[in-house]
User: Fold these one by one.
Assistant:
Number 1:
Amino acid sequence: MSTNIDVSEEVTRILDSLSHKGVLREQLADERIKSQLLPHQRVAIDFVSRTETGTLSPNLSLWRYVDMGEDSYHQHIITGSKSATAQQVKGGIIADEMGLGKSLIMLSAIAGSFDRAAKHARWNKNDSNRDEVHAGATLIVVPSPLLIDNWIAEVRNIVFSSWKKTLDLAKKLLASNDINSYLIHGSLAISERAKILKEFHSLGGANVLLMTLGTGGVGLNLANATRIYLLEPQWNPSIELQAIGRAFRLGQEQQVMVIRYIMKETIEDTNVLQRQERKLQLADGGFLQKPQSFSSERAEAISEIFGVNLRN
């Protein structure tokens, strides 16, 4: 019988149960750190501080002394490398892609060292013949390219257009930039659509799905998508809303961003958007207002939209 295990909770439990707690102590994070640290992260701050100041217990050293008489040496317990001395590398604890919170640990250790650094700068100041030099410093934390690539790959994008030819051009443009994509349109068989959607939902599939609005607005659940692109506005705003709604189905746990493309100084910019707004306002008015509140302004707006004269 299989059971579901929360990996992150299990890793945290293991880290919190390590025996080094008899040597290291939990340190409170600097007040400038707003994130809540876990117990093993607070202990790690003490480890980093002791390593950098040279006060780390030999029991926690990564080097083990091997007594071979005149040929004695120190051996690294992880890499196996040998050295005449235990070479403790300052700043050697860095963040990686494992997701164990080491970035937060390092930032907490740096923030906690500000006061000690300032004290060190003032130490023996009166005995120094050198003038004090004020200098600014900036700490830039940049994720590794591998981590950024993984984040980008996790973002699922859907591109909507009314025209298959437009999506064909978009697909060629994506391919020219080494971006894989899928294309679903009205003439595609149902079985092919299902196959593409299954691949799009899988972790190893392409993260861009191109769809015509007609196929993207009927009975689909695209809750794994977090980016929606609309390549042109629609005269009927409900068509856009219906397509966008595919990403807001049950199961969507992330924030969804909708990007609309509008050609400046064209009919899209000067006419379509205004009509969309008027239609939505009229639709809301039909549900929210009482029958007697049907004003002459609304009548005029309806006549303009549908091209009829309500005054005759």
Number 2:
Amino acid sequence: MAKTKEWKNITRKLNELTGKGRGESEIKLAWKRMKLAAKANVSAHKRAQTATGGGEKPPSPSAEDLEVMAIAPQDFIITYNDYDSDAMDCGSPSEPGNTEQAIPVQGISEQGTSEPGTSEPGTSEQGTRDQDTNTKKPRKEMPANKRTY
């Protein structure tokens, strides 16, 4: 409610200053574009500063970009992940529900070697293991009329 009221106030003041009859949606879109452009320029500047290879110092972001950044600093917050750039933040390991669980892989022991009695892909020992009894079941043959070659 307060945001809507404030956008109407901004629209009215801007139209008084410029003498043009822009709508609220046009002004919101212009602000959004200004923020996106400022973010891109500030980001490019930071990337250029951390680039290797020497050369000249990159130009600073424009005064307009810095002004937009000062108006809406919450839109320019950069989050870092020390482990992976596309990983999700799952909180700290001590939080409830945030635990690691090992996923068992059939045929691989904890040391990463094959367990006795299991076969590697491509070997002659064919078939599957019964999950309940852990015994080898023979491979079922597909009827000849259902085979695909």
